[in-house]
Design a protein that fits this description.
heterodimer, A: mainly alpha, 12 helices, B: about 400 residues, 7-stranded antiparallel sheet, 6-stranded mixed sheet
């Protein structure tokens, strides 16, 4: 079962990288888990940081335990949920009101390994990636300044001149519309490999813009976004796998 | 009977204009000649017939001979069901004391005053700088009291230049309400109001509400980036909540070019730091800092991190005592201070530092020198003093 082994390796390797990227953020800068759940509740800074780090590191322990029992992947998903949910509660950045939905691919990615049922696996991943595309699309339509700067920077990188902001805003708006369209389509055309390949390409490309734009500071953000392209790739694998064998033990 | 009469008189005086809340004076680009006096009202009707009577450099004349009058305008806030009563003063004299009171057909307010910015380059000028007053009303009041003390001891202070993140949730009227209540603590015992220059932080999430509260559209700065001219000191207020690369960068480049040609002191002031003490660098580092360096900025104010910091002078990613820009910040007007995790970064080498400490900066300009002192609560002595000399082109 070469396919199965490859997919398992892919899944666990990238989940490990996704956790490392989150841990890098926790140890280097601190995240909203510490700020919102502890610091704003009058815990000391050191206690908040310590608890945040323990919570982050425990996801590595859960990853190790998941080789023994798969349900240990659930707390990893909860860890990513807590990262997004604390950001939602803390607010203070563009699109914070729907950050959980925009991050759903990252949150559900660990759940890929929990169920044996291929339909459940595929369903979870589809909802995750569709939600991520739809809500990033909404952010783009609302003029997220980060997306705008990424576009302007990419344009200047290619053409060596800065585009007009008004035109860039219009382009980002239509990119948002297309993100929403493909996100919605993914829920209906669930076996369409071309569509999933596009999602994977776009997820990879937009993640890659981070290191391009931020330099070294963009490396961790790139790896945090691994599920944006890996989830559609896993869906493609499942589509292909389903064509060969239906509903068999996968992990 | 006598007691009841005295009591009712007392109550009547207390309730004089009690419906006019949250007195504040706003300054934007021309603090020498323009200011807005603003109140919050529960009912629009309370504004009916109200006028602002003001007088330059002398207390309001009871006979009304030398008084000036400003008519009101009112607008409803998008949240909270409140209304803003604004008196625009557009014909002020530079370097003057402006005495004012609000009069309605039935009542009148106490007499307050504020100062406008001087126009002459050699006139003494002082400003307060600070950001991040969100989340902790009690500490915010302590810092506002500190501002009051500073204004009382340094009468040349004109305004507080804010660095953003006034409150935690920019969509919450109750938080704005509390912030505006707390700001009243900064009014001195002789009724001097400290005007403020607004800048948007990342927690001012509701752009429309922020713009309404601080009359940004009326001032002509709906995107909240603009220059405030305090004689030959140009505070370049930037907005880190919007694109750093689009129109704002173009404007910044043009503005720096013009100001440096005219030999202004140029002091950028923005929220998200380029050289942080706590978090990641903002986009300013890549897209604005090269412009600061190109046009000879000496120092900039940053906020957001919730720690006190002073960087070593930085030029092209290295410490350079001749050409470097010093970054001061980063947000200590009330929010709980963080442990500056990045205090071991290269740019905090001596004379730089980063500490967890509430603070406010007092900038004093005299001729070709600017002295920035770091003021902390519960201490009459400045924590640090930094002197910048102007390089004449």
């Amino acid at each position: 079962m070469g396919n199965k082994k490859t997919i398992n390796t892919l899944f666990y390797s990238f989940l490990f990288i996704q956790i490392l990227a989150a841990l890098f953020n926790i140890f280097q800068y601190g995240t909203n888990i510490g700020s919102y759940f502890f610091l704003t509740r009058d815990w000391s800074e050191n206690s908040s940081l310590l608890l945040e780090r323990i919570w982050g590191l425990s996801s590595l322990v859960f990853l190790a335990l998941s080789f023994w029992k798969r349900f240990f992947l659930i707390p990893i998903s909860l860890f990513f949920f807590s990262l997004s949910f604390s950001s939602y509660l803390q607010g203070g950045f563009f699109g914070s009101e729907f950050v959980v939905w925009a991050h759903l691919a990252r949150i559900v990615f660990p759940l890929f390994g929990v169920s044996e049922n291929l339909k459940v696996k595929k369903g979870i991943l589809l909802i995750g990636v569709a939600s991520t595309f739809i809500f990033h699309g909404i952010e783009a339509m609302k003029g997220n300044p980060e997306f705008l700067d990424l576009f302007i920077y990419f344009y200047s990188f290619i053409f060596n001149s800065f585009p007009e902001e008004d035109i860039s805003t219009q382009i980002i708006y239509w990119v948002g519309v297309s993100d929403i369209a493909v996100g919605v389509l993914a829920l209906f055309l669930r076996k369409n490999i071309v569509l999933m390949a596009y999602l994977a390409f776009w997820g990879f490309f937009t993640a890659l813009l981070r290191p391009l734009f931020y330099g070294v500071d963009g490396i961790a953000p790139f790896f945090e976004r691994v599920p944006h392209f890996l989830v559609p790739i896993l869906i493609i694998c499942l589509i292909k796998y389903c064509n060969i064998k239906s509903n068999r033990s996968f992990l | 009977m006598k007691f009841i009469l005295v009591l009712s008189l007392l109550l009547a005086s207390v309730s004089a204009l009690a419906e006019f809340k949250h007195l504040r004076v706003l300054m934007h680009s021309d603090p020498s000649h323009k200011a807005m006096v603003v109140y919050t009202l529960d009912n629009k009707q309370d504004a009916k017939g109200s006028e602002l009577i003001y007088s330059i450099n002398q207390k309001i004349d009871d006979k009304g001979v030398k008084n000036r009058v400003s008519k009101y305008s009112i607008k409803s806030l998008k949240r909270g069901g409140k209304h803003l009563l604004k008196f625009a003063l557009n014909d002020l004299e530079a370097g003057s004391k402006v005495y004012f009171k609000v009069v309605t057909p039935q009542k009148e307010s106490k007499e307050f005053y504020f100062k406008t910015a001087p126009k002459q380059k050699d006139a003494p000028l002082a400003l307060l700088f600070g950001g991040d007053s969100r989340s902790d009303s009690k500490q915010r009041r302590i810092m506002n009291k500190k501002m009051k003390e500073l204004v009382e001891n340094n009468p040349e202070i004109v305004a507080l230049v804010f660095g953003g993140d006034m409150i935690e949730n920019g969509m919450s009227w109750s938080q704005w309400n509390q912030w505006l209540e707390d700001y009243q603590v900064s009014i001195t015992d002789d009724n001097r109001v400290l005007p403020f220059v607004p800048v948007r932080g990342n927690h001012e999430t509701d752009k429309k509400l922020f713009n309404q509260l601080f009359f940004m559209e009326e001032a002509g700065y709906k995107d909240v980036y603009y220059v405030s001219y305090f004689s030959d000191l140009a505070i370049i207020n930037l907005n880190t909540n919007i694109s750093h690369l689009g129109k704002q960068r173009k404007w910044l480049k043009k503005t720096l070019k013009e100001l440096s040609a005219k030999d202004y002191w140029m002091v950028p002031n923005y929220h998200r730091p380029a050289f942080p003490a706590v978090k990641k660098s903002g986009k300013a580092k890549k897209h604005w800092v090269p412009l600061f360096e190109e046009y000879g900025v000496k120092f900039a104010f940053e906020s957001d991190g919730h720690a006190l910091k002073r960087t070593a002078p930085i030029y092209k990613g290295k410490i350079n005592h001749d050409k470097g820009v010093v970054y001061l910040g980063e947000g200590g007007l009330g929010v709980k201070q963080r442990d500056p995790k990045r205090s071991n970064k290269w740019y905090f080498q001596s004379p730089g530092y980063a500490y967890s400490m509430h603070h406010i900066f007092l900038l004093k300009k005299e001729n070709n020198t600017i002295n920035v002192s770091v003021e902390v609560p519960n201490s009459a002595k400045a924590f640090d003093q930094i002197i910048f000399e102007k390089t004449v082109n």
